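note to self — DONT lose this again. spent like an hour looking for the file last time. sequence + predicted structure for the chain T wanted, 190 res
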Amino acid sequence: MPLTLPLARMLIMNRIFFILILLLTSHHAIYTNDSNKSNIDFENSKNYKLLDNYLLFGATFGTPTIININIGYHTKYFGVQLSGLYLIEIHGAQINVMGILQNSEHVLLGFSLIGGYTPLLSFKGGKTSFSPFVGGTANINLSIFYIEIGLAKHFDSYESYEMIRLKFQLGILFRLNREYKTGQQGGADK
């Protein structure tokens, strides 16, 4: 099978997404001054405090483009997220204005009003048009895993019709919701 330009782009985007996931999923070590590492008191080893206002970033698969870069800022009850990607022929963007129902150390639950634009293949002539949309989604962030699902109304100017489409994103989002104490390593002997 010959390697066509769209297939080559898809393979490159697949590799970029895979590398981003590998880079973003590094693990943190728990340090202790105690030589017996099996007796770590995890509650006392927390050398951080949770923040009410924080940034987030990550990468997702789904709409508005196939692969999205995500950035955002959250407070205790509200948040704003931007997602999208700009490549030569594939680009789209989405903004989420989120009301947060639960915001804890490992869980974020919320509902968003969304707006943005996404590429759509036209039924007339096979052209790609960029369709603006508005809608709503439910958002779940469990530890680093992110799920967003909802509906959006698209307004296609080339076709002059409106349609409702499913919106989803699956991926990894890191919430920078911890402030680490300086000069401490944590551990059971604190």
